[in-house]
Amino acid sequence: MRETKSNVFSEKIKISTSKKIALNKARLNKKKTLKKNIKEISIRSGLDATFCMLTLILLVVGLIMLFSASFFNAYYYQNGDSYFFIRNQLIWAILGVVVLFLVSFFDYNKLKKLATPILCLSFILLISVLFMPVKNEVHRWITLGPVSFQASEITKFAIVLSFSHTISKNFKKMGTFRYGVLPYALILSTTAFLLYLEPHISCLIIIILLCGGMLYIGGIKLRWFGLVFAAALAGVAFLVLSNKLSYANERVVGWLDPFNSTTDTWQTRQGLYAIGSGGLWGLGLGKSRQKYLFIPEPQNDFIFSVVCEELGFIGALIILILFAMLIWRGIIISMRAKNKFGALLGIGLTAQVGLQVILNIFVVTNTIPNTGISLPFFSYGGTALVMLMAQMGIILSISRSSKLEK
Amino acid sequence: MAKGTTIRMWRRSILVLTALIVFGFGTIVFRLMQLQIIQGKNLQQMAIDQQLKDTLISAKRGTIYDRNMKPLVQSATVWKVVLEPAYIKTDEKKEIISSGLSEILGIPKEEIYEKANKKSYYSILEKKVESEIKDKIVEFQSKNKIRNGIRIIEDYKRYYTFKTFASNVLGFTGSDNQGLSGIENYYDKELNGESGRLITARNAVGTNMPFEYEQRIEPKNGNSLVLTIDESIQRSIEKHLEEGRINNKAVNGATSIMMDVNNGEILGMAVKKDFNPNSPFEIEDEEVRKKIEELPADQRSKEKGKALEKQWRNKAISDAYMPGSTFKILTSSMALEENLVNDETRFNCNGSIVPYNKARSINCHKHSGHGVQNFQQIICNSCNPAFVSLGQMLGPEIFFKYYKNFGLTQKTGIDLPGEANGIFFNKDGSMAPMDLAVASFGQNFTITPIQMLSAVASIVNGGKWIQPHVTKQIIDEKGNIIKKARENMRRRVISEATSKKICKLLQVNVDTGSGKNGGVPGYDLGGKTGTSEKIGDSEEGKKDYIGSYCCFGPTESPKFVLIVIYDTPRGNSYYGGIVAAPVGAKIVNDTFPILGVNKNYKGEELEKLDTTTPFLVGSSLENAKSVLLQNELKPIIKGDGTAVVSQIPSIGAKIPKGGTVVLYTDNQSAQRKIKVPDFLGLSIASANRLAVSSELNMSIFGTAQSREEIVASKQSIPKGELVDPGTVVTVEFVQKDTIN
User: A71 vs chain B: nearest CA distance in angstroms?
Assistant: First the structure.
């Protein structure tokens, strides 16, 4: 009985996958033509094929998994429209691929001029988001017509960009307080304060780690680096301990014992059930049981638990390897950049993806307390996906220019 | 390189990369291994537990029938009302449902509202709801268009058709229909069946998945039992036993068992006081209940527990007692089987016996002594010193050999829970000389009533011990026989010849000896009464007794054996012959016709036989007179008419042979009433004379012999009451000073 039922279901998946295969074929054809172009281009401009392929593979895998994870949730909450999430995401993904290649032709050095305006935009957005309606007890989203996005997406990029620009500009003076510490401390503290007001602690953590890494690579004197880092940590610790972040504190309690806690640990618990159910080989693609409303919004932050349930430990490992390769490749590209701005920008953007992957999976596996971090390429969210693809485009642009130099 | 990356940047980048990969991804892989491979099974189980909804489907518990397929215990459909808060989303709906159900079920509204607010999908509101209330809920649902949120699940409830009837044997069930005592408990597995399950895959809100995974395991309804108990026999036993318990003030209750001697089928088993299995947790005895209610709260539950324990107890199998003189049936059989006695054997009784040198002397109830007696006489006189001698003739080894063979050292293994075992002097069967002396007349060791009954059955049925049982067969829903009564354990204890002899001896005892009060005119009964002293449980300085009577019939080829026991009678008498034997006689009188045993009158009995009054109204006086004479009845004519306008007793009424029928020839005379005289204490002859002179008819119940020591003990219409002339007054006669 159960077999046949789930067969019906896997049938559905099969249909959808076959649809997707058709789509992929179409895209592959597209790619083939593109490949020709790429070859032509790459001879001329040296686009990094490995990084490009890794990006596209992760995008496709991410889309498949998104469909699998979201279709029942969509069916239940979107008036029986099982394709609600995948349809939206697919449109954005196609847009994302276009953006990816467009951006890769764009000379990233022109971004230098945009660094300050984008930073300003980021501040404006972070301030204006505070006046946006509250969603899930926090204000994070900005809605512009049909499009809504998280202000912090822009912030992350703005910070990486402005840091790369400032560091590369003042590279030789990085040892001094005035040029090596002050500007970064000002930007970071302002951003941190605004994020705290949202509140959006998970983004704050990513930004702090990101800035720390960039400043470290940029050559900051370690004592400053250590001091700022310590001060930031102390600030967070103070906020947590003084109970000012009561919502975060509650999450810590739930984190320590998700199965018996009196606090609401439903999401964490359901994620762990899903991961555990996967075992070594997984239940099979499309056969997750936990996505049937047990995991709230399985298409969002907790999508990796459905991946683990369906594809098992082996599947999760393969996806992790893909991400690791992407990071590896990103850093190689950055190191080969023809200037320090490119190198720092590339490392910053790569590290941002890497950190987000790691922190997301940390949350899903209950390694750290639950906080909202989405999984790049997988989690539902059109603007974030396009943003991500644009950032990948920038890295490709860096790879292109570095090869041109050679 | 000047424009590009520096060495330090390279180094630091590699460090960041390594940190990311090793720390970040390493931790992830470690965590995934922990969760998926090490804890995987546990987490998966927890996941499955929440993914599958398992709803129990109750099985219908089997019916318990009497031997004639009259249902004694039945399961009827009731309903379980369950709230499914997951479906009740709006506050408005919660409000409607909680106030509506509160009204129907009588549960406080707040309680329901609170349940509706909880994040669950299954919350029991009320169990065992009758169908009428269920119908009201259904109506409420359709009226308010509530399609989900309330679920009504079929369940069953036990109904004991005749309330207290055979309650200590049938037992009762708990709230989940599990058998807690009696037959319900012993055959719980058979009766219960197997509950079915409905396993459905469900999502987090408790509704079923769109592609349903559903597995239904049908419940297997329980099997039914056909008991060996006969409803009408049981009813008669209970009626007379209870009447006797009240008259004799038996403070520790009473029990009676009737068994088919040839196959071990229990036809009736009654315990008084009893309880109502429809509400087993209520204390039936009002006095006890009041006493407990007055107790301080901390003692109340403990005392209540004790009282409940007591009212549920099946005295017939759980309470061991000293059999007293009824045990002389066994001692006599041993002696006969061992050929230690014959018609020539003589026993001398001078009022007491010293069983051995320097021993305490044992008195006979007849202090002057019975003198020289033969074997038949010692039974009829129930002479203790003679039985002490008989015991000594047997010796302890032979005595114990038979004791064991009669099944008194172990439980009978009847199919009822809670059977006790008696206590013999020493576990290895050895007996001190004084032990043997008193054991020969049934004192100082204990056995259960069912052990005693089975032992007597084995003596009168030709010598085979047969295991008693209460269940005839187990049948399924459609009536197919699943299992017959188990093959009874049988073993030979005494020879058929001995059995025949003892039956005759005991018949004489009922006809003319100490068992006279147990006799029923027209039936050949054998029996023995017994009165034993209770040791240990009576109050200081007070002696308590158990009066019992054990009989069987017909003596020619015995079919049935009956035991009646009164524990601690504190009425006018405590002798078995007075408290138990008349009850035994009444039971036999009621039940033998049911069992198809015909009356066979002889000698004196024939004269006192009742006849039915013929129909005389309307016939001429002359005619009526001659009809009455033909029927051996005497006419008394009142009035001056020539035809009979009314008669007393009326048509079909039982009237003793030679009784008077009053014929009225006018209506005025019919107004005359007669005061019923006091018959109590009179002999049959004088009672008869009194009846005739009072223009009443007397019907005799009890022993039919006209002897001085037999006196009226009860009359059906109390003295002083005004009745029509010719009314039949049933008078019960018992032996005045019954001895054992």
Answer: 12
Q: What is the pLDDT of residue A320?
A: 95
- Does one domain contain both B688 and B584? no
In chain A, the residue whose alpha carbon lies closest to the alpha carbon of B212 is A5
Phi, psi of B533 (to 5 degrees): -85, 135
- Number of other CB atoms surrounding residue A256 within 10 Å: 12
Q: Are the C-beta atoms of residues B684 and B709 closer than 8 Å to each other?
A: no
Q: Is A144 on the interface with B (CB under 8 A)?
A: no
Contact B16 A9 (CB under 8 A): no
Q: Which two tokens stand for residue A278?
A: 């996967």
Question: How much is the pLDDT for B489?
Answer: 67
Whether residue B46 is contained in a domain is answered as no
Q: Are strands B471-475 and B224-227 parallel, antiparallel or unpaired?
A: antiparallel
Min Cα–Cα distance to chain A from B43, Å: 5
Using CA atoms, how far apart are residues A310 and A314, in angstroms rounded to an integer?
10
**Range in B197-211, B291-305, B369-383 with the lowest mean pLDDT:** B197-211
Residue B43 lies in a domain: no
Q: Is residue B3 within 8 Å of A339, Cβ to Cβ?
A: yes
Q: Both B118 and B205 in a single domain?
A: yes
| B576, B713: one domain | no
Judge whether B264 lies within some domain. no
CB of B246 within 8 Å of any CB in chain A?
A: no
Q: Is the peptide bond before B219 cis (omega within 30 degrees of 0)?
A: no
> Interface pTM (ipTM) of the complex?
0.82
Of the candidates B529, B134, B170, B488, the one whose C-alpha atom is nearest the C-alpha of residue B316 is B170
Burial A131-154 (b: 16+ CB within 10 A, else e): ebeeeeeebbbbeeeeeebbbbbb
Active-site residue, selected from the candidate residues B75, B181, B325, B332: B325
Cis peptide before B108, with omega less than 30 degrees from 0? no
B325 included as an active-site residue: yes
Cβ-in-10-Å burial (0-12, 13-18, 19+) of B98 comes to: buried
CB contact under 8 A, A337 and B29: no
Distance from CA of A10 to the nearest CA of B (A): 11
CATH number for the domain spanning B185: value is 3.90.1310.10
Instruction: Give the closest of A2, A216, A358 to B20, CB-based.
Output: A358
Whole-number Cα distances in Å, B517 to B460, B527, B545: 20, 10, 19
Whether B321 contacts B546, CB under 8 Å? yes
Task: Give CA–CA dist B623/B620, Å, rounded.
Answer: 5
User: What is the tens place of the pLDDT at every residue in B667-706?
Assistant: 766 667 788 888 888 877 788 778 877 878 887 776 655 5
Look up the domain containing B155 and give its range.
54-227
DSSP SS3 for A141? strand
Q: Please give the DSSP secondary-structure letter assigned to residue B711.
A: E
| Together in a domain, B537 and B663 | no
Residues B384 and B344 in one domain: yes
A312 and B17: CB-CB below 8 Å? no
Identify the domain boundary among B565, B594, B623: B594
Categorize the per-residue pLDDT at B213 as very low, low, confident or very high, splitting at 50, 70 and 90.
low
Whether residues A276 and B47 touch (CB distance < 8 A) is answered with yes
**E strand or H helix that includes residue B82:** strand B71-83
> Average of pLDDT values for A220-229?
73
Encode B153-192: b = buried (16+ Cβ within 10 Å), e = exposed.
eebbbbbbebebbbbbbbbbbeeebebbbbbbbbbbebbb
Domain end point (choices B201, B227, B253): B227
Does A297 have pLDDT greater than 90?
no
Domain identity same for B59 and B208: yes
Q: How many domains does chain B have?
A: 4
Structural domain contains residue B166? yes
Is residue A52 predicted with pLDDT exceeding 50? yes
Tens digit of each residue's pLDDT (9 = 90 or more) over B145-179: 776 778 788 888 889 989 889 999 999 998 878 88
